[in-house]
Write the structure tokens for this entry.
Amino acid sequence: MVERLRGRAGQEQRKRRLARTDGLCERCDERGLTVFATVVDHIKPLALGGSDEDENTRNLCDPCHVEVTAEQFGHAQPIKGKGIGRDGRPTSADHPWNRA
């Protein structure tokens, strides 16, 4: 088990790691988008034996973090564009009811 920094030391570590990319999401940046990072993500998750070192982290926005975590742990991808129309049907084109 990896011992994680907590309290003020953990906050300083997170702040330092976010500053590495000027607080921007690394995945969005690769696609030419400018989006603020909100999560310091472990490339190899701690739960799967990854280390809590700077080299094993990347800065991600919430949507990228959800996608990456789903991929890493074999979960279904979230349905984008959640919501329902006046008829009560899902508005997302990704929803199984709206697929051709």
User: Anything to note?
Assistant: Helices lie at 7-19, 26-30, 62-73. The mean pLDDT is 87.
